[in-house]
Design goal:
The structure holds 2 protein chains of 2 kinds. Chain A is mostly helical. Chain A has a single domain, classed as Ferritin, core subunit, four-helix bundle (Ferritin, Up-down Bundle), CATH 1.20.1260.10. Chain A contains 10 helices and no strands. The longest helix of chain A is centred in the first third of the chain and has 25 residues, at 22-46. Chain A is globular and about 50 Å long. The radius of gyration of chain B is 17 Å and the shape is elongated. Chain B is α+β, with helices and mostly antiparallel strands. In chain B, strands 1-2-3 form a 3-stranded mixed sheet. Chain B is built from 3 helices and 6 strands, in the order αββαβαβββ. Classes of the chains: A mainly alpha, B alpha+beta. The A-B interface holds A 23, 26-27, 29-31, 33-38, 40-41, 106-107, 109-111, 113-114, 117, 121 and B 43, 45-49, 76-81, 117-122, 124, 128, 142, 144.
Chain lengths: 216, 144
């Protein structure tokens, strides 16, 4: 959960200064900041947060594959519809997991309220893009089709409840839910990642590795 | 003589500079054991970037009141909610044209005809609204 939030924060922050409107730039940056905040609190409860975030290699991360994927079809690509589909899938799962743990874990109790707001934001955009123009519909549907296989790993243990959140949103957005048959990539929880994580970590960790403990 | 609690309570939030941390509900507790002051604070949002500034402001304020040994700890439970903003905090926000949580009324002209322009604002705890009456934009503290 900590790694999902940390890697998602790093991915989302790629949007800073590049979003389609200033308001959305602020929104995505805020969501990234919330994700980072939760990741830090969870990592602090496990050990030294800097060591855990900056000094683990790719195979030591336990995030699901979805969060490390580029926010577009190719590495370096930033597609807004893609990002919203990714955010909807991720925040629906996070909201359920935090909710399950909220009674026993103070970090989850805090995160559950924030994740509800993230999920609501992603929901509203999914509906607007899906039920929007032909081009916005085409783009977010393409993202949903491409990302869907990765949602199996993301939603392990909560698939049915996750679908009960995501299905009505897709329906309202006039989007088609892809088939559950076929490819179900996984391995992230065991440290087997896509190449995308390594590039992401190179950017995230290089400063700390070159200048350990640097502050400003 | 200023008590450690009074010193800590008077610290102004570094981002919403019109309310104190006590009014914002992020100051949880101040205790003194053997001359050591322990201040407990809680973040509004888990990623709130103001926490480091608040910590150092609290230490400086309590030291300034004559207590040299100060420790600031963070407590997450119970999670902060906007219900923890005090009545004087809500008034201070409104007086400074920031709509308090749950009140969508324009803090400039009191018109109820307002519109959300962005769900997120300049800090994690705010959204951006505009007034359809006087056309002024204003921030609003999001209900959490």
């Amino acid at each position: 959960m900590a790694d999902d939030a940390l890697i998602a924060a790093q991915r989302l922050s790629e949007w800073v200064s590049r979003a389609p409107t200033l308001e959305e730039d602020v929104a995505l940056a805020n969501i990234a900041l919330d994700q980072l905040g939760v990741a830090r609190l969870l990592l602090q409860s496990l050990g030294d947060e800097d060591e855990l975030a900056y000094l683990r290699s790719d195979s030591e991360f336990r995030n699901c594959l979805l969060v490390e994927l580029p926010l577009g079809r190719y590495r370096g690509d930033l597609d807004f519809g893609w990002t919203i589909a990714w955010l909807l899938f991720l925040t629906a799962a996070q909201h359920l997991r935090y909710n399950d743990l909220a009674g026993s874990d103070p970090v989850a109790a805090k995160a559950v309220k924030e994740s509800a707001y993230h999920l609501d934001h992603a929901t509203q955009w999914t509906i607007r893009l899906g039920d929007g123009t032909q081009e916005s519909h085409r783009r977010i549907q393409a993202a949903i089709d491409e990302l869907w296989p990765y949602t199996h790993e993301l939603t392990e243990g909560l698939r049915e409840r996750w679908l009960s959140i995501v299905d009505p949103v897709l329906e309202k957005a006039t989007l088609t839910r892809p088939s559950d048959e076929g490819w179900k990539p996984s391995g992230g929880r065991e440290g087997q990642h896509t190449e995308h994580l390594s590039y992401l970590l190179a950017e995230m960790q290089s400063l700390h590795r070159a200048h350990p403990g640097a502050t400003w | 003589m200023v008590t450690p609690y009074e010193a800590a309570a008077a610290v102004v939030d570094p981002e919403l500079r019109v309310v104190t941390i006590a009014e914002l509900g992020i100051l949880r507790d101040v205790s003194v054991v053997d001359g050591r002051v322990k201040v407990t604070i809680t973040p509004t949002y888990s990623g709130c970037p103001a926490m480091d500034a608040i910590r150092s402001d609290v230490v400086a304020a309590v030291r300034g009141a004559g207590y040299d040994e100060v420790e600031v700890v963070t407590s997450l439970s119970p999670a902060w909610s906007t219900d923890m903003i005090t009545e004087s905090g809500r008034k201070a926000l409104a007086r400074n044209r920031i709509a308090p949580p749950g009140n969508h009324e324009c803090p400039h002209c009191a018109s109820g005809d307002t519109l959300q322009i962005s769900r997120y604002g300049s800090t994690p705890c705010q959204a951006l609204f505009k007034c359809q009456g006087c056309y002024e934009p204003f921030p609003l503290v999001k209900t959490l």
